[in-house]
Amino acid sequence: MDTRNLTLLTDFYEITMMQGYFLSGYADKQVVFDLFYRENPVNSGYAITAGLSQVIEYIKNLKFSEEDITYLASLNVFRPEFLKYLGNFKFRGEIYAIPEGTVVFPQEPLVRVRAALPEAQLIETALLNIINHQSLIATKAARVVHAAEGNTVLEFGLRRAQSPDAGVYGARAAVIGGCAATSNVLCGKLFNIPVRGTHAHSWVMTFPDELSAFRAYMDIYPNSALLLVDTYNTLKSGVPNAIKVFNEMKEKGLPLKNYGIRLDSGDLAYLSKMAREMLDLAGFTDATITASSDLDEILIQSLKGQGAKITSWGVGTNLITSKDWPAFGGVYKLACEFDDTGLEIPKIKLSNNPVKITNPGYKKIFRLYDSETNKIKADLIALEGETINPEEDLTIFNPVMTWKKMTLKAGKYRVRELLAPVFINGECVYDDPPALEIQAVCKREMETLWDEYKRFVNPHLMPVDLSQKLYDLKQKMLREHGKIGVHET
Q: Where are the domains of the chain?
């Protein structure tokens, strides 16, 4: 796990605002911030949340070192009394979050922070950096895995990731999203994730000929030989030489395990069908065909539709970078504050763009399932003190088009609260599960979505409604535009 001190992994204005709060007498003001996103990435019908594990490590190691204080002092911006305050800084607040691997939708608080104002402000940038990146890659991976329709998907993107951290934590997020293994050895070590790989074209080119290269590889790795067959000529050289080596193993009486070929270029649909015929004709019906070569969910779906005989997919660049949608777009907004008596004062941000108007107040999220199918019917954002009794009818409505309503009948639906406690009074209370357990969670979560939400073109959008009390609060604050706590952009 990441034990680095990332305290200065923040935007400069976070620390200047901290000093402003400190000097203005707001150092102890209790506030609530919500981290949420406004639009599903990759034009998807959902997202997968990831990154909470690194958030936990970040908060645990949050402390300004002497070197940090010295550096900040050298900027000639911060006053001695504020730097002394930073020297004793510790996160003492509360964090609730939706567990990793959960299916989520726009406007829902993925992370809810309640803390003293300077504490909550400081962690904004790092939380967004971590949650945005890893949720993006987990979502992309879930889409790729869905396109593969039960075939194995391997994450092969390290060399194309934007940095070592993006490679390591991106690979972990990809596994959460459903990838069976990664080529990233450091990720495998850190998070106990299976590592897989084959060989490069350079292996074949190093030997006198392709057949010698295949024989050597099969001899060294008899139980995991996946031969790359497109170095010279896939159908005239690569596949026939692979078959020859497989036959030699059989003649020696050696068992063939976890074996097959890999295609990394050319017309993958055509080549895989021809290779399948050749392998089957030779008696190697259980040999796998793995494909790589700039794959993504759209290309995989297309290849499946063309009848490609590919049983395993190695996905690299387009997954680890989410090439077609490079940013998740999460934001971190003030939702409420508390006065000296503990009274909640809701806050709202207004905008000429309706999607940027925030939901005020100290909130939580109810997920509503159909009891019979276990599919998600809707999510409901509500105020913290609200409850739902599934033994009573529940009518919910679209907060924009309020005439669009849905009534869930008593006993026909079940309710789950999504936000879980992670830090209470600055102490971690969350049992952070291993990545492969989170992957299993994600798989179950994906099964709660109807297929219409998982399609790649024009997917259904899940209803994310507001409770009546939250809706009324928001409308009241909109009517009171211009009062303290309301600003417009």
A: 12-137+329-386+416-488, 198-288
- Give the C-alpha distances (Å, rounded to integers) separating 334 from 18, 347, 370, 479: 15, 7, 33, 19
Confidence band for 483, pLDDT divided at 50, 70 and 90: low
Q: What 3-state DSSP class applies to 376? A: strand
End-to-end Cα separation, the chain, in angstroms: 40
**At 61, phi and psi to the nearest 5?**
-100, 15
HSE-CB at 398 with a 13 A cutoff on CA atoms is 9
- Which pair of tokens denotes residue 91? 């996160």
Question: Among 232, 103, 235, which Cα is nearest to 177's?
Answer: 103
At the topology level, CATH places domain 198-288 in TIM Barrel (3.20.20)
Instruction: Label residue 489 by pLDDT band (50, 70, 90).
Output: very low
Tell whether pTM > 0.90: yes
- Which amino acid would we find at residue 340? D
Question: Could you report the per-residue pLDDT of 403-428, keeping only the tens digit for each?
Answer: 999 999 999 999 999 999 999 999 99
Give me the amino acid identity at 354. P
What is the tens place of the pLDDT at every residue in 330-342? 999 999 999 999 9
- For domain 12-137+329-386+416-488, give the fold: nicotinate phosphoribosyltransferase (3.20.140)
135 touches 51 (CB < 8 A): yes
- Kindly state the average pLDDT of the residues 253-275: 95
**76 Rama class: left (phi>0) / alpha (psi -120 to 50) / beta:** left
> What pLDDT score does 4 carry?
85
Write down the residue that tokens 């009062």 correspond to: 483
